[in-house]
Amino acid sequence: MHKEFYSDQDIPVFIEGQIIHTLNFISAPQRETIPLHSHGSGCYEIHYVAQGRGRAVFSGQACELAAGTLYITGPYVEHAQVYSVQDPIWEYCLYLKLDKGKTFSQLAGLFEQTTFWSGRRQFWAEDILKALFRELERKDTGYKIQAEAYMKLLLISLIRKYKQNHPDKRASTPPSISSRASLIIEESFLYGYQTLTLETLSERLGLSQRQTERLLLGHYGKNFQQKKKEARMAASVIFLTDTTKSITEISHLLGYSTMEHFSAAFRTWYGISPLQYRKQKINPSQDTV
What we know:
Blueprint: E1 4-6, E2 11-15, E3 18-29, E4 34-37, E5 43-51, E6 54-58, E7 61-65, E8 70-73, E9 79-83, E10 90-99, H1 106-113, E11 116-119, H2 124-138, H3 143-162, H4 179-192, H5 198-205, H6 209-220, H7 224-240, H8 247-253, H9 259-270, H10 274-282
Antiparallel strand pairs: 1-3, 2-3, 3-10, 4-9, 5-8, 5-10, 6-7, 6-9, 8-11
Helix pairs in contact: 1-3, 2-3, 5-6, 8-9
């Protein structure tokens, strides 16, 4: 297996008048912990573990990952992922955006409503994903048409599985946001929380800083500083479980100028110090004052 990353492909899948755009295609080893994060309205990720082991957290619930694990996260589902150093994960990850049409589609509606699903031993998905990435790599004549066919096969197969446990109620729909803007915002906070500034994010979006703040408030209910602090704090608890890293080192990894600044921010957010949190995770039965 070799690392593959195809961005801004926008392979559209038409399902009964609705369009599901696949924007990013990734096949790669996971060498970094992915901190707790969530996606905005209409945004979904499909993850398939091809090999290795790890752990994912979905809305506070831990789940062991192994070869054949397939999981999907939709809007506002908080999730994080930690890899095993001894047996690192190689996964396929697809980033999708639902473009709702004017007419109701039962199939696309079921996809939209299912904001989380996971299953083990879903090896059928690997054959589809391998064929899909083969088309994207070779770029033979008509490869986008073939890629769309494989995506449709993958999505229809998933929707059939959703039918067994689909929710009864629809989630409320926040203000719309473009696929490109959504992807820029989520990747910026997920991977650039250490040094990200409002000015930098605004430049990436092609908006003024005031427009960017309005977009964040309307779509996520948080301003820039709240989103950045949320991303830092989510990453901090994952780093603290790695006892090979000192708290000073972690504070630098998170973009804090000093350990004292990080400790104060952590205590304000979680109510305890980073050291207390680490002790509790290492020895949960030990009372920490």
